[in-house]
Structures are given as structure tokens and as C-alpha cells.
Amino acid sequence: MSNFEQTLTPTTHDLGQFEVRRVLPAKSRSMVGPFIFVDQFGPAQLDLGSGMDVRPHPHINLATVTWLFEGAIDHRDSIGSFATIRPGQVNLMTAGKGIVHSERSPEAERKAGPKLYGMQTWLALPDGREEIDPAFEAVTNLPVIEDGHAKAIVIMGELWGERAPTTTHADTIYAEIMLEPGGMIPLEEDADERAVMLVGGEASVDGHALTLYQLAVLQPGREMTLESRSGARVMLMGGEAFTTKRHAWWNFVSSSRERINQAKDDWREGRFGTVPGEDGEFIPLPDGAPKTVTYP
Fold first, then answer.
1. Which CA distances in Å does 107 have to 48, 81, 110, 113?
2. Which of 44, 130, 170, 284 could anchor a disulfide with 34, C-beta 3.0 to 4.6 Å?
3. Looking at the whole model, is its pTM more than 0.90?
């Protein structure tokens, strides 16, 4: 009997020089803990002189989490934050009542031919905290657990007896696990909901093989063992289950449809603010975009 409650296959978007694989939200499942959006991108080596350019765009009522395995990304936002994201550093941007940000390859990376390989996730903010003030933090002093042929970095929350200093707005677990050949590590059962994604190599959970880039949602309340015969990189994510529905449209997530409609108007009318260091570029409100989706 498999320990997987569900497996989700991502939708792959070819962006020319690299691919983005979106596994949440899916038709059959919208969230795992507070995670409502999960993208995996790369590995990719971009052409010399080129790079990633995500123009300024808005968010409300969520937090974005950027985690890189390779490469670098310059983050700028409308509250004046600037950070160059690199492997080993988690960038947490809390949108709250509203924020605008851009993500671009640094100039030095463009000259060398940028590498891109990592994760972009969104966390829905819990009831009562959706409209908090926007904030940004870049955290590097993350706990590292090493045991023989296994190494794990705790990005958010508490795992294996160690807690990351990264802010959590709801109970959240998030970790990168690297297994050498023959490596194994326990997957604790404390979280309401948990899932693992194999992003490189080969691994299994209690003997059941993981498929590259699929999200395997684990059965709750059972401790399991993640292991690899030949080496692997695996992301573990989850946390508390939300009981209130979330609505999503474009870059907006909220428990209120009316709030999303207000955000549409605010972006259309230029009421979100601007990003220092940007030259006025922005992503316009999409025409003919899908209707607001409700996630139970």
C-alpha cells in the first residue's frame, strides 16, 4: 500500500530558454498546508547577455517564497527592498494588503550566462492576517541537519528538532533535502498536510518511488522514511490545513472575492505604488484572464 495520498503532475510551461513546472494549484487539489502555488524552474543555462526579466507586478493576501539551487535573482519591491537571491538564502515577501515587485537576472550573471534552478512558492495568509502590512526578509542563517549521507536545510518552520528563523504566518514546514547514494532521512508526521517533490536524482518514500517533478502528497499522521540509492534532491513542504476557502485570480489570493476585485481596480488605476530602481515597466492587468477560482 502506497503512503501517497495523492500524486500531482505539473503543467510545464516552455519559456524558451528554460521550463517552469507548476504543480499547485491543480484541478484535483489546491493547497498543501498554506502552500497554494508551487513552481519549479530549471535547471537551465541561459545564453550570454540574456536573463530572466519579470517586470513589476502586484500581490495581495499571500507571501512569496523564493529558493534557489543555482543562479541568482535580483528582487526589488515597492516598500524599498532590494536583495540578490542566491542559493542558501530564502527570500520571503509578505504581500499582505498589497505590494509590487520585480525579479530580474543580475547584470553580472547576464554577462556570464545566467543559470536558473529553483523553486517559487506562494503561501496563503491565514484568516485575520491577510491584510497585514507588507514586509520583506532575506534569511541565510538557516538550520542544517546532517546525518551520514543525508543533509537537510530547514527553510521555514520546525523540522528534525531545529527551527528556521524565517517568519511564518501560519504553521509551515519547508525544507530542501539532499541525499547521497544510500542516504535516508525520516519524514516526521507532525504537520496536518505534507508533500514531497523530487527535483533531481532518484528517491523513494518507504519503498515507493518518487517521479521527477511530481508532487507526492503524503498520508497524514504517519512517519515515513525518504531514501535514495543513487542520490537525490527533494523538497518537503506543508503545514496547517486551511478551513476557509481561498479565491485566486492572476497574482491575487484572498478569502474574499470582493477584495480581489478591489485589487484588480487598484492595479488598473495605479494605486499599488511603484518599485524603486525600475524604469516604469510593469505587467498590465491581463485581458480575458480566467475567472476567479475558488479553492475549498
1. 11, 18, 5, 10
2. 170
3. yes
